[in-house]
Amino acid sequence: MNGQVIHITDSNFKEIVSKNPLVLVDFFADWCMPCRMMAPVIEELAKKYAGKVLIGKINVDENPATADRFQVFSIPTLVILKAGEEVDRIVGFVPKSEVEARLKKYLER
To answer: Which end of the chain, N or C, is less surrounded by CB atoms within 10 Å?
Structure first.
């Protein structure tokens, strides 16, 4: 949680999520325009919430097992995990304020 976006894969997903109490995972694909629009928002949130929230990205084309496990049918999909369990999900491009509001709910608990 150093302010960098972590690249998550099928093989390291469980380890990363289990070591961090609050995780935001961005399920994306390189060819997806809304995903590209979401990328700067994800980068900003990683810096702003460094030390509080681990923020990672997982490419659904390269890591289909995790995308399938979470039943990601549309991208971008942001999944918030607390203590390894999904607590919230945002589908599609949304403004930074919306993602931040959702994250704050789980930081305060």
So the answer is: C
Query: CB–CB of 29/35 below 8 Å?
Result: yes
Question: Would you list the domain boundaries of the chain?
Answer: 6-107
Q: Which of 5, 6, 32, 91 is catalytic?
A: 32
Which pair of structure tokens corresponds to residue 95?
């403004």
In 3D space, the residue among 82, 39, 81, 87 whose CA is nearest the CA of residue 59 turns out to be: 39
* Helix locations, 1-109, DSSP H: 13-18, 33-48, 64-69, 96-107
- CATH for 6-107 is 3.40.30.10
**What's the whole-model pTM score?**
0.94
In the residue annotation, 107 being an active-site residue is answered as no
Q: What is the predicted pLDDT for the residue at 109?
A: 64
